[in-house]
């Protein structure tokens, strides 16, 4: 029997028994947060495993411990929603630390790879640490510490862990993103700071000076339904106030600070690899009220390290009017070529940025080297849309182009004085065909702050580069490391994970790749880090992380395959609670997320590993196992069709996939047709409402943060890029709002009141709720204060778990048999 883990962060289980659930409040009760059963709370509060960061000199691991969840009080801090971003005006930083669990990192331990010795970094009291990065030589470690009213820059010594704040009275400005980059002298950090001369924030008058006006005169400017846009002149002033920065060079060795250039709204600041120049993109007025900051008009310049302008690269207009499936018509994607000290690379569209225009070539790639006085040189042209360009340490380029319609991607080898050679030509969505990603030299000197399209140099040894990937296969993922000869294009397998474990390549430990770091895990053993020798079969353990949730290791899981009525192969992972007796039928919940594919073969390919070590975090649906449910997790719901046509048969394929999944769990003797529920988040919530609208396969649904009326996203959604006016019948057919009168089974709608995801405005759930109520449906609508598209606060997450258990207990686990009148 083949088993694998689902694509989930994890899973927790304790011995099952009778559970008493706190009663969730009704609409007439005072609002309050409730808790799920105590066994779920205990598993929920287990401390997560440390995050791991490898030093560029390959000698040290930084082990980062972070709080799992903020409190609702922390999430309720002041928030300004400006130009597509959310900031805390008290700190002049992000309202939530993107990519970090909870309120940030609270402890850092440095572990030497050679002998395993450890030192603790002396972080400040009540630390809320983020943006941890080593200096290029690994001798120092920089991090930000967020206080109640400011963000500080700290630097630690990697040898002994001593640390100090280097910003003094200056305040870091992190409103627009990661604010700091190391320069290659290993002492200087280039950061955006709040200008010292900034005055008090402009207060909005309660008396309007006049109406707000928007206008357009003949220019088409389609745009997705973005959240958090600037709305009026006061928003413009707030944006300018909080996002204006002074670039400052902080010397972590001497404590000196040097202003660089003049204050401006800095969208992109990237030091050159040689450290003597800086790419600077400055936002300029007028600010758009239609698109976020990343599409605002800007000036692009190269500055000398001291701030003196060295070259003006472009004066780029707003992206308003850019075709929805296209790119801006002028220069774009400015970035440093990482194998050279100071060579700028960028892309220009040859088709006006419009994919509907017939053109022999879509893009051209240009470069200009210091002292930036000559004319740009053309590197290459692409028949398809430019994807990326990365260079090896020996100056060989790997250029990737993509075609959206055919869903194909090609990679070319670029060498000076030679014609491009095709390296790969493959389907983008075919996991088995992915050759892996080139292994780059890990160096903080290559950026990591505000810069866009950053590429570290690809490691090259003689004629060889190395590729690493997940290694999807019919038996599940088996991560690998390959050696590729750039002359012969032949590959040699250096390492592949065993079939009984999941071992992933992390980083090289020498230039010849004779030693490298891996992360090893099994179903029963938590992920730990090991040093491997390429010539030996043994490995040396470096970390010794313990199982944070030992009570959950007796979960039964089984990877299952089945087939849709049109022949498409489907798969899912079935989870069973401990103590389950074969033949005993359980209530089942299916949790899924549809995906589009160009063909049936790609849709049928297996991803994920049977050997993944499982944990459960947040409001994962896997907690339902603690309440006696079987989970049919991530059943594939492929929407298959060539080019842009996949959604033409969305409803039919969705229902067919769900029917096949229901038939499978019933056939296996695990579930019965009278006790199966369905749920999903975002596009999975959209899926849930559609399944209830177009079938009677499920007794109840749980739909989180979905979009249910596609006429409210008229310029495309998910992978659909045709507009409402091109295919109005499709938009209607895919919208469960239009079929609210057909939803006969109970559905719970949940939405974050501060949803920040494009298209999933809270009004989507509100209007579906009103439609369902108007037709007499059984529906509960729960809104989550201060929560975005992804829920974060501890109180919220536990409340979501309580709501989910309560809903499925009432309408699935304890539901009676279906009657003839309940059938459609």
Explain what you see.
Helix content is 11%, strand content 32%. It is mainly beta. The strands form ten sheets. An eight-stranded mixed beta sheet has the order 36-37-40-38-42-43-44-45, with helices on both faces. The chain has a seven-stranded antiparallel beta sheet with strand order 12-13-14-15-16-17-18. Strands 27, 28, 29, 30 and 31 form a five-stranded antiparallel beta sheet that branches. Strand 34 and strand 35 (539-541) form a beta hairpin. The longest helix is centred in the last third of the chain and has 20 residues, at 794-813. It is globular and about 80 Å long. Residues 1-21 and 98-102 have low confidence and may be disordered.
Keywords:
seven-stranded antiparallel sheet, 32% strand, 824 residues, mainly beta, single chain
Quick description:
11% of the residues lie in helices and 32% in strands. By secondary structure, it is mainly β.
> What's the end-to-end separation, in Å?
37 Å
How much of the residues is beta strand, in percent?
25-35%
Radius of gyration: 27 Å
Q: What is the number of helical segments per DSSP (H or I, 4+ residues)?
A: 9
Topology:
Elements: H1 38-44, E1 51-54, E2 60-66, H2 72-75, E3 80-82, E4 85-88, E5 93-94, E6 105-112, E7 118-120, E8 129-134, E9 140-146, E10 151-157, E11 163-165, E12 180-182, E13 188-193, H3 233-243, E14 244-251, E15 257-271, E16 277-283, E17 298-304, E18 309-316, E19 331-336, E20 343-349, E21 363-369, E22 377-382, E23 385-391, E24 397-403, E25 408-414, E26 421-427, E27 437-438, E28 460-461, E29 464-469, E30 480-485, E31 491-496, E32 502-508, E33 515-521, E34 528-533, E35 539-541, E36 556-563, E37 569-576, E38 588-591, E39 595-597, H4 600-603, E40 630-633, E41 638-640, H5 650-667, E42 676-681, H6 683-694, E43 700-704, H7 728-733, E44 747-752, H8 763-774, E45 779-784, H9 794-813
Helix pairs in contact: 5-6
